[in-house]
Amino acid sequence: MAARRRVAQMAAAAAFLAIASSPAAADTDRYAAIVVDVRTHEILHADQADEDRYPASLTKMMTLYLLFEAMERGEISLSDRIVASRFASRQPPSRLGIGRGQSITVEQAIRALVVNSANDVAVMVAERLAGSEQRFAQRMTARARELGMENTRFMNASGLPDPGIRTTARDMATLSIALYANFPQYYPYFQTPSNSWGRRTASNHNRLLGAVEGVDGIKTGYTRASGFNLASSAQRGDDRVIAVVLGGATAASRDAQVAYLLENAFEELTRRRTLQISPSNVARLAPVMPAGASPWSAPAVQQLGAMQQLPFEPAPEELGEGDHDEASAPAEEEPLLPGEPDMD
After folding, report:
1. What's the pTM value of the predicted model, to 2 decimals?
2. Which of 242, 243, 260, 323 could bridge to 327 as Cys pair (CB 3.0-4.6 Å)?
3. Per-residue model confidence as pLDDT tens digits over 326-343
4. Does the structural domain 21-328 have CATH classification 3.40.710.10?
């Protein structure tokens, strides 16, 4: 078992090295990252964290936030059913494939949003709570402002491409923390490994679940304009860390970057505890990565490859086994087109 794990680690390191040295991976125009200590809200690492980016399916975190709030107010329950309109049923992939007039329970909708990243279900939730997706998007943006997400604007419930949609890595970290802190009873849904609908079973696109110690959420996203996004939360002992990476060139390189940032963050928190350094006595941490290094630089890759325990295995696309969602999505930048499908 140990030998097999080591082989997987070496393969993953080699795969990441190949990705990170490629021209596509070296393009950081869409890249942004932030790492936050959830307990103290201290920023452990930030790279272009306040630059405008596209959230893609990370948008569905806010859709779920408003749904959880409605459940808390007693406006809707897990067993209530929501019905697909003609508009909802015609949403592009990723989708559950619900026909007009068909219905699912709220709990099924939550699982479909978390696991399948279903655009049709996102619209169903929006229409159920606000009457229309447009009004729901206005509520999403207003709630974002109340949470302190000053640089986020939502135009729909799914994250499908729209020139008006904007966010930042910092704002997505703020939303991630709010979901964890305000809805502990619903947060475990983000750990759902798979979801079945009809004859199909989909696996959670967040490959760090069960692969990186402590990871228990939260959401992936992809469009051609955004690149590969991931907001991830992990807990080890009393420490919880949120890491957000936007604009990854591939799902695998994004996953590797998030794993790398999480590992370094937990190591730093452990070091502080060992040295009995209080966070209040430390204004800012030095960057998690080597000083002056870009997220795709050789030092960062070498440090990742030198880890004793690389906490992930090669993604399916690195093994030539595309799974027709993130894995099969093109990595290169393409023009933003109306109605462009969200592949995640």
Report:
1. 0.78
2. 323
3. 433 433 223 333 444 555
4. yes
